């Protein structure tokens, strides 16, 4: 079930909301949590019910490991060994589904063998719920979580607003919210803000991201020969599509969660305003950046073991980040590029150099845009084709068209407009907030209806594939 679908907006979300708070009103707290877990698993199973046993087994396994790590009892075995076992088991399951066919393809390429790939379907959200549960195991080992029963743990993992594509949350930042008495009753301020944020996200997805998706697909997957302008249109289309698609999803997730009085962490903070690659990663997919920092970069030694080791840790962290996004050499190279950029940025700062802020933004944005080409391309040759055309200035065409005007408008929005996190903090009147929510929601629904009429389906969010 998609956030940008009629069944979610007009059936699943309102029904879940009213029954959840009705059960809480009747002081059936455990029943309300159980209902939320049930509906979240129903939401998850909507795509393919065969995925359900995987997430259920994963939850039970990690709950048992986490509770053991968090227990005050003395065991004969080392808890550190148990933690390593839990992490390795989680990664092994993820690797089997996500990377096994990629491994076979490369074995066949290197050894000229003909091993048949398994053609495994990637279970929905496995990357996200795996990372979330790994963080739970580590936090349990560090005694940063409390012991909860399985129902509470299942709610932590499956809570539908953040289940499929994040934000990646810590147990300690979400579960205490469900325990607060005041969060068990409807909060009309949270409802107002939640609907407003959800409407912004829905507008981002169906009006902006899905428009750019058409142009990105045309450039990357349809047209075989591109002029320099067409190539830049293709790359920028994906750059904007990815941001508005994923930030739109995150806004909808945060808005939907707020209806239930649960505050999810901010995941985007105007990343295309960044003036350095380090600044970008403090603004883009913030909860993933936090995970990579806390559970990969710092355990590897962070910046505590000398400059060379710091550079190596940065490279390792971002190559692993690239691999997490997808099983392909283009993703690995994308991670390598970002690792190298962070190494260069750190070395540049060590030398004491500084750039003009406008020039720094220009370099950062264009690096991000170029690196997204590898992220988007289905094959290595597709990336090279687009990049070659982007710098083939002999094919410049100076005709101004609708697409170019749209890019100028989007640039102005990105640079000068406030993001959704900033907008909700503005002191709008109640009527103004209702009017803005209604306008964005109606425009988004009209566009959604248009998509349904023309294509008979709505588009999935890009990060569902990762």
How would you characterize the overall build of this protein?
This protein has 466 residues and is an all-alpha fold. The protein has two domains: 181 residues, no CATH class; 277 residues, no CATH class. It has 19 helices and no strands. The chain is globular. It starts with 5 loop residues before the first helix and ends in an 11-residue tail after the last helix. 39% of the residues are buried. The mean pLDDT is 89.
Core attributes:
single chain, about 475 residues, mainly alpha, 2 domains, 19 helices
Summing up helix and strand content along with how strands pair, one would put the structural category as mainly alpha
Rg is 23 Å
How many angstroms does the end-to-end distance come to?
Answer: 17 Å
Shape: globular
Task: Work out the helicity level.
Answer: over 70%
Topology of this structure?
Blueprint: H1 6-25, H2 29-45, H3 52-70, H4 79-111, H5 126-141, H6 150-158, H7 160-163, H8 171-179, H9 188-222, H10 228-259, H11 277-281, H12 286-297, H13 307-325, H14 329-350, H15 357-376, H16 380-390, H17 402-416, H18 420-423, H19 430-455
Helix pairs in contact: 1-2, 2-6, 3-4, 3-5, 4-5, 9-10, 9-19, 10-15, 10-16, 10-17, 12-13, 13-14, 14-15, 15-16
């Amino acid at each position: 079930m998609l956030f940008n679908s009629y069944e979610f907006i007009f059936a699943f979300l309102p029904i879940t909301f009213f029954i959840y708070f009705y059960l809480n009103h009747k002081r059936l707290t455990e029943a309300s949590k159980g209902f939320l877990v049930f509906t979240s698993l129903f939401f998850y199973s909507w795509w393919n019910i065969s995925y359900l046993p995987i997430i259920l087994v994963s939850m039970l396994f990690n709950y048992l490991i986490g509770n053991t790590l968090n227990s005050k009892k003395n065991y004969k075995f080392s808890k550190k060994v148990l933690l390593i076992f839990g992490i390795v088991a989680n990664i092994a399951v993820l690797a089997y589904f996500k990377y096994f066919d990629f491994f076979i393809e490369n074995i066949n390429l290197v050894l000229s063998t003909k091993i048949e790939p398994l053609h495994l379907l990637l279970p929905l959200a496995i990357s996200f719920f795996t990372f979330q549960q790994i963080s739970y195991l580590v936090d349990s080992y560090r005694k940063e979580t409390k012991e909860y029963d399985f129902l509470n743990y299942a709610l932590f993992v499956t809570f539908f607003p953040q289940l499929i594509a994040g934000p990646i949350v810590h147990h300690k930042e979400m579960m205490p919210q469900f325990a607060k008495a005041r969060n068990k009753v409807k909060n009309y301020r949270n409802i107002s803000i939640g609907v407003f944020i959800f409407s912004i996200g829905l507008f981002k997805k169906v009006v902006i991201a899905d428009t750019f998706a058409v142009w990105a697909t045309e450039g990357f997957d349809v047209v075989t020969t591109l002029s320099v302008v067409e190539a830049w249109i293709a790359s920028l289309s994906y750059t904007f599509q990815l941001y508005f698609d994923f930030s739109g999803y995150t806004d909808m997730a945060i808005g939907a969660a707020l209806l239930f009085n649960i505050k999810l962490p901010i995941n985007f903070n105007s990343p295309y305003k960044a003036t350095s690659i380090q600044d970008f990663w403090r603004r883009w997919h913030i909860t993933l950046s936090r995970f990579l920092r806390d559970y990969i970069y710092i355990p590897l030694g962070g910046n505590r073991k000398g400059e060379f080791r710091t550079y190596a840790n940065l490279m390792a962290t971002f190559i692993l980040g690239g691999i997490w996004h997808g099983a392909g050499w283009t993703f690995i190279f994308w991670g390598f590029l970002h690792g190298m950029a962070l190494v260069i940025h750190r070395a540049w700062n060590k030398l004491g150099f500084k750039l003009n802020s406008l020039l720094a933004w220009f370099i950062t944005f264009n690096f991000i845009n170029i690196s997204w080409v590898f992220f988007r391309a289905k094959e290595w040759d597709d990336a090279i084709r687009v990049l070659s055309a982007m710098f083939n200035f002999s094919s410049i065409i100076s005709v101004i068209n609708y697409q170019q005007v749209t890019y100028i408008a989007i640039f102005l929005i990105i640079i000068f407009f406030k993001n959704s996190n900033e907008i909700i903090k503005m002191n709008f009147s109640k009527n103004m907030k209702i009017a803005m929510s209604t306008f964005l929601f109606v425009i988004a629904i009209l566009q959604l209806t248009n998509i349904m009429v023309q294509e008979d389906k709505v588009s999935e969010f890009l990060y569902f594939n990762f």
